[in-house]
Amino acid sequence: MHWLVRRALISFATIFAAITITFFIAEAEPIDPIRALASQMVYQYHIPWSEAYSIARAAAPFIPRGNPVEQYFHYIINFFQGKLGLSITVATGVPVTEILAKAIPWTVLVVGTALLISFGVGVLIGMAMAYVHGSKLDSALIVVFSVLRSIPNYIIALVLLIYLAFQLRIFPTGGTYDLAGLEALKHGNILGYIADVLWHATLPILSWVITSVGWWALVMRGSTISVLGEDFITYAKARGLPSSRITTVYIGKNALLPIFTLLMISIGFMFGGSVIIEKIFNYQGMGWYLYQAVMNKDIFLMMGAFDVIIIAVIVSLFIADIAYGLLDPRVRRGGPA
Amino acid sequence: MSGSAVGARGAYTREQLKWFVHEWIIVPLKIIVRNKKALFGFILLIGYLLMATVGPLVVPKPENFQCPMELKPTLLKWPPSLAHPLGCDYYGADIWAKIVYGSRTVLEIAFIAGFITTIIGITVGMVAGFKGGKVDVALMSITDVLMTIPGLPLLIVLAAILRSYANNPFVVGAILSVNAWTGLARSVRSQVLTLKNREFVEAAKALGMTTGHIVFREIMPNLASFIAVNFIFSTIGAVYSCIALYFLAILPFTANNWGLMLYMAWNNADYNTVIAVVLAVIGLQLGLFMFSYAVDEMFNPRLRTEV
Description:
The complex is a heterodimer of chains A (337) and B (307). With 337 residues, chain A is mostly helical. Chain A has helices spanning 3-28, 33-45, 49-59, 68-80, 96-131, 136-150, 153-167, 179-186, 190-228, 231-238, 243-280, 286-295, 299-327, 329-332. Chain A is globular and about 85 Å long. Chain B has helices at 14-34, 36-53, 55-58, 95-131, 133-148, 151-162, 169-176, 182-196, 199-206, 211-247, 258-267, 271-299. Chain B is globular.
């Protein structure tokens, strides 16, 4: 089977699985989300019950208290049309799609930057370690990286917050941007806004980078060492190829290939981990909204946030897969998966 | 080729006992002592196991208002002193005692989750690899789908509805392994596929051995080191998610544990406790990770010949 077709099939199955899981969880909740939403709207916006109820019902992706099979198909159809209902408690009456559309870029910013930095830096350090393997520097780095890779990222996040934000006040204690950034944006100072955003994103990104750079370095070190002993390297040297070409094309590329699969696992782990990192930094991305929705029994937002996180993972995996196919000709030809 | 030395079932003879002690106690210890990293991890792990088992018998139970209340609380509330080596927390309770009393739940849940994860991973991988055909396609499709769903969000959503059942470590362990087994299942399957057609398995088949015998006696010993290392990594993963879920207040607060301590301390700006828990978690994870360096050698018959 063509690798892209296979990946597409699994992606679709995964989206269906995610939708099904959230649907069952919504069914298991004793709360009727439509009534809950209507009463929240009555309470917050002082509109009559009948009006609130009809707004809530019109926007709902499925109507609870009916035939569950019918509800399920109703939900799937509405999901693919982008009708995900309104938020109940977290942002009463705001469409879930609107909330999530605002949240996605923040998560992608943090996760994407952290992944690129830790992968890039980790791979370079790992290759360098492999060249000097057995040396004192190598063993010292192994110990340092083993320690770093054992620390959960949220633990690093807490430590960074305590020391760099609460005590030294170098970085903000949370949020995606603040008034200074907003002011800059109003006065057309785009650079000032970007600086403010990056300033807020630094600690979340750093929590990821510190804990995963060592992991990449250790994996790349092992992979490079195994490539170093291959015959084609010796042959390339014997042919008198420039060492820069041997390092990048012959060693780098071949050592990188087996690591690529780990990149895919790491994408899912990082999007998933955004729930706790974003909670700690009060960073309003997808994970933050998923957590708020679960804690406040905001059923429609919970369903939407969970499904969108999984779609984000799937899209990233697709991109990684295409990149892998470009790197490795064996995959393109449809070899064993 | 594996357990043949145990011989006939029933009482162990003196010789067999001697063999057992040599094979399972002396040789592994030699391997650990020889490898500095593994020795360090082993000592850490023993420390944590003692803390969780003997600790509560030795260390007095933490009580609120143990610390003198007239001391001015600073950012680090009550600083460490001789009587209270890690200082006291927001409520004036000894932090070291709380860490000791909280370790049991964490270790229990982590090892149970690691165990369940490993069992499911091996079973799914073995069945898929052996049966092949449609069973293989079906199992691997399920594995791929579950693998794509990120663990933490799935756990958070699931734990929210399973909350009322999640008051015993077995249930929490089972929740934590919900999709942690997928990686192991995939690797076991590919290992089985490469071993399936090797001569010794063919020979066993030709001799009319049962599938059970082939799986447990011929294939398993070859996977033992691989499985043991994976068990440790599953445990590391379970510690990660377990403390995360308690810290996020997703799991019910039943017994004192590090995740709950972290949650309470963080919300009360009690950084003394936060740092103590941070160090405790790092130590445990590091111990497990370092110990894994020796495990490979211990269970791999080819690597241990020279000892």
